[in-house]
Design brief:
The complex is a heterodimer. Chain A is 5% helix and 51% strand. In chain A, a hairpin with a 3-residue loop joins strand 15 and strand 16. In chain A, helix 1 crosses helix 3. Chain A starts with a helix and ends with a strand. Chain B has one helix and 15 strands. Chain B is mostly beta strands. Chain B is elongated, with a radius of gyration of 17 Å. The chains are: A mainly beta, B mainly beta. Chains A and B meet through strand 11 and strand 13 of A and strand 4 and strand 15 of B.
Chain lengths: 713, 213
């Protein structure tokens, strides 16, 4: 949960670079070149073009089963024919957003005003089977002309490590590339229209092979783990059962008022009217992956952790009939990081690798019997559909805090090891992370479903104990330590390890992340859009129908995005009318509008494992002409019921639409919509506001334009 | 009849030991025959000890009612099937409810007023499954037998309309949590449900065709 620290380690690596300065130049003998020159045929709206692709990187000359193999910085060079350049220049700006890309800074742009993004499909082959290489999208910028008649775009980036699962040969190959080209430079962030191309080679190009031997001795638990999908099977070992409440004083919530650790329980305050219930706590293993922005370095590093948590050791739950509308769960945890090597450019040019560990520690000044665990707090509303008495939870969230040290080691500068020793680490620092789990507008997630986690303004304390022959700590401190660092993680479903519930290979599953392509400003149109209300006998009670409904969404393009709040936008509906239960029809004046923001969330059907789409925040507002010059306001959303004893609508709240997304079309399958209490219309059969009066049928297939590929991961 | 009044009536009824109940003869039941019951408003259950709540958005039951004159109150109706859907515990935990021990029976225990009849649903057992926790609980009467839930039946207010069976808050029942597995810390947290916890139920079912008693 608090991988933040790991990134810090990378920082340390960078610092190590700094230490090395320019003294290290030679490529170590242990590294080998890997890459290929390829000719591809690219097709898109601009027709078919021949494009060249050069891939260059380095790789260790050998590897071992279970040990991560990390490629060096990957450089790509895309050669475009001049006629394709003209097609790109002809595209007109229309507001498409610049995609966020993973990787290092693109090459310095030449005078040619073109940029782009290359997503290369790389496969990793080994005797045990094939898998995806998971290479990042490369931001491309124009390179100086080479006199070959082509326009060259170059970029670079870092791929996740690969953990071999069996001895033999491990090889990389490439065959396809998604290429997006835009006029100008993608790094400027200006909105421009893009030209999308799908490129394939006639024959799959092998980039290189590494010899993989058997594991060297018994590997340390978790040492072979890496935050990559392909490494998941090898990530066993960090999911540990920790003692339940009352079993060991070192594993407990730390309420010491002198420590910042317990501040997560202060705001909002726990209602005094609720008495706690105590238990051993459910034992969860939670895997989280993300990135850590290191302020001093101006770069990001990937991070991955397995969090071992005892949740629900203390529970504060209101009464489901009488309130308060509140539930809070507390617990404690131990965070274990996957020691993933990271590569960065020290001083902007020196490839540096290092491994960092966030070592969770007890509170400073604590004794041997004091807790060594971090504190956990989960806040959720008890019921969103009923107006139970306050206090309540308006914003569902999770908070976690722990003391850690950042330990740096296994540093390499340009491939040359830099011995930091075994004691190179920072002083203690408090890591406090929060995760938003939704509200009435965005829709909500539950803690055990996984959630985003953000730690802001993380302080990296000074280093000490670094270096063997000389004290490197001051350089590390100068290069890395300081405030303003930021971590962003996404956790997977919480694995109840004692019940083996929601677990994968005895550990937490990887986060459910989604890749959006091409993203940007998206229009989704359904023709028609119909909501119908029938009674339990199937008799017609009313219908709200429109010729079309148009959602306008902003979706960030990128890999491995949080499933929660994947897009945001609004909606309008045209050609609408209302048919009453007596079959009289009333036109809607003008267009019906969406009140407030819509949110697009993705989730995975637990039973079938299929991605589902959910549109939250739906509140439609239509002005209805009821004749004789009179108009009324019809609002469609969801309801908060008065009470369990009087289940009639009391308040309006946003509704949701749930459906499937396939081939660029979101098909409505269910919804929670009904006329709300804010409606002023008295249309026969249409002023239903009771519990059972939601629309019972829906029709709407929203076609996304441009078509979006929303895939997991 | 208001909820409070119904609750009071049922509560008063609950003071009578089961063994002492003498089922009255209902002078007239019309039309009788096959009946479908659907919920009007949420059907909810409350764990009286933890405060945890289970709410189902849809409940449908099918069965039959003995029609005619001078119908014995004992087993005056039979519930042959009942399905629950859209059930969520504590606002967030998807839960399935599976009835057990069908058929259940409805007894008339008091003739009540001109428009209402007091009774109880018997033989009630069901299982709750919340796989995301995980937790499976079985709710039964004493010792694992079928339990009883007190209710009030109200005749239709319009010709051809539905009659209503209400399970008011405060109505007597002898249901409790028989088992909750897996036990903590693997599942069924103590803040959610525990063996021995008692239960409060609330909800209304509309009977079609409406029955006049």
């Amino acid at each position: 949960m608090h991988q933040v620290f790991r990134g810090v380690a990378r920082i340390a690596a960078i610092a190590a670079l700094t230490v090395s300065g320019g003294a290290l130049v030679a490529v170590p003998a242990a590294m080998a070149d890997l890459g290929a020159d390829m000719g591809l045929v690219c097709s898109g709206k601009a027709g078919t073009h021949k494009v060249t692709l050069r891939i260059e990187t380095t790789v260790p000359s050998s590897g071992a089963v279970g040990q991560p193999i990390q490629l060096g910085t990957i450089k790509v060079d895309v050669g475009l024919p001049p006629e394709l350049l003209k097609e790109v220049s002809a595209t007109s700006p229309n507001g498409a957003s610049t995609p966020p890309v993973t990787g290092l800074a693109p090459s310095p742009a030449a005078s040619t005003a073109i940029g782009g993004v290359a997503e290369i499909q790389v496969a990793v082959h080994e005797p045990g089977g094939d898998r995806r290489g998971g290479w990042p999208a490369f931001a491309l910028a124009a390179a100086p002309a080479r006199g070959d008649g082509a326009v060259h775009l170059t970029g670079s980036g870092v791929a996740p490590p690969v953990v071999p699962g069996s001895p033999g040969g491990l090889s990389w190959s490439a065959r396809e590339m998604a290429l997006s080209l835009v006029p100008g430079d993608t790094t400027t962030g200006k909105d421009t229209a893009e030209l999308a191309l799908h490129c394939v080679t006639e024959k799959e190009a092998v980039l290189g092979t590494v010899r993989v031997g058997r594991a060297r001795g018994a590997s340390a638990p978790g040492a072979s783990s890496a935050p990559t999908r392909q490494a998941a099977a090898a990530q066993e070992g960090l999911c540990k059962v920790i003692p339940g409440r009352g079993e060991d004083p070192r594993y407990a919530i730390n309420y010491d008022p002198e420590l910042e650790l317990a501040e997560i329980y202060e705001s909002p305050p726990t209602p005094s009217s609720i008495f706690p219930r105590y238990g051993a706590g459910l034992m969860y293993c939670i895997k989280a992956t993300g990135f850590f922005n290191i302020k001093k370095v101006g770069n990001a590093a990937p991070i991955a952790v397995e969090n071992n948590a005892r949740a629900l050791t203390e529970s504060y739950v209101g009464n489901g009939f009488f309130g308060p509308n509140y539930q809070e769960y507390r617990g404690y945890f131990v965070n274990r990081t996957y020691p993933t090597p990271a590569t960065m450019l020290g001083f902007g040019f020196m490839p540096t690798r290092a491994v960092a560990n966030a070592v969770q520690i007890g509170a400073p000044g604590g004794g041997e019997a004091d807790p060594i665990t971090g504190n956990l707090r989960i806040l959720q509303r008890l019921r969103w559909d009923m107006a139970l008495p306050d206090p309540t939870v308006k914003r569902q969230e999770i908070a976690a805090s722990a003391y850690i040290r950042i330990k740096a080691g296994q540093a390499e500068v340009n491939g040359v090891p830099l011995d930091l020793g075994d004691e190179c680490m920072t002083g203690p620092t408090l890591l406090s992370a929060n995760g938003f789990m939704g509200n009435e507008r965005t829709g909500t997630t539950q803690y055990y479903e996984g959630q985003p986690l953000i730690a802001e303004d993380v302080e990296i304390p000074p280093f000490s104990g670094c270096g063997v022959t000389e004290d490197l700590s001051p350089i590390l401190t100068a290069s890395v330590s300081g405030g303003g660092n930021y971590a962003n993680l996404e956790s997977g479903r919480w694995c109840n390890i004692l019940a083996n519930n929601q677990c994968v290979n005895g550990a937490g599953p990887l986060p459910e992340k989604f890749t959006v392509y091409p993203g940007g400003d998206v229009t989704a149109v359904a023709e028609p859009f119909v909501l119908t209300k029938n009674d339990t006998s199937g008799r017609f009670q009313g219908q709200f129908r429109c010729d079309s409904a148009t959602m306008r969404l902003q979706m960030d393009r990128g890999h491995w995005q949080s499933r929660f709040r994947l897009g945001k936008g609004d909606m309008s509906l045209d050609g609408c009318e209302v048919e009453a239960s007596d079959r009289s029809v009333y036109p809607v004046v003008g267009e019906a509008t969406q009140d407030g923001s819509l949110w697009l969330n993705m989730f995975t059907d637990v039973g079938g494992g299929n991605p589902q789409m959910k549109i939250n925040g739906v509140v439609l507002n239509a002005t209805v002409d009821v004749g004789e010059g009179k108009k009324c306001s019809l609002r469609i959303g969801d309801a908060v019921l008065d009470s369990i004893f009087n289940p009639v609508a009391k308040y309006e709240r946003p509704g949701e639409i749930i459906g499937t997304y396939s081939n660029g079309v979101f098909s409505m399958k269910s919804q929670t919509l009904r006329p709300t209490v804010k409606s002023t219309c008295q249309i026969p059969g249409f002023n239903f506001m009771n519990f059972a009066d939601a629309f019972t049928l829906q029709e709407g297939n929203f076609a996304f334009s441009p078509e979006q590929q929303i895939t997991s991961p | 009849m208001t909820t409070a009044a119904a609750a009071a009536a049922v509560a008063a009824l609950a003071t009578v030991p089961a063994s002492a109940v003498a089922y009255p003869v209902v002078p007239s039941v019309s039309p009788g025959g096959n009946v479908i019951a659907t919920n009007v408003g949420p059907i909810a259950g409350l764990d009286n000890q933890t405060g945890a709540v289970l709410v189902c958005s849809s409940v449908t039951a099918e069965g039959s009612v003995k029609g005619g004159t001078n119908v014995p109150g004992d087993n005056i109706a039979t519930v042959t099937s009942i399905s629950f859907s859209g059930c969520v515990a504590n606002g967030s935990i998807p839960t399935t409810v599976t009835p057990q021990g069908l058929p259940w029976f409805l007894d008339v225990t008091d003739l009540g007023t001109a428009t209402t009849t007091i009774g109880e649903l018997t033989g009630v057992k069901f299982q709750l499954d919340a796989p995301s926790v995980p937790c499976t609980a079985v709710i039964t009467g004493p010792g694992g037998t079928g339990g009883k839930i007190a209710g009030v039946h109200t005749n239709p207010t319009t010709a051809g309309g539905s009659s209503m069976l209400e399970l008011p808050v405060g109505g007597a029942n002898d249901l409790s949590v028989q088992t909750a597995t897996p036990a903590p810390p693997a599942g069924c947290p103590t803040s959610l449900i525990n063996p021995g916890d008692t239960v409060t139920l609330n909800g209304k079912l509309a009977l079609n065709p409406g029955q006049t008693m």
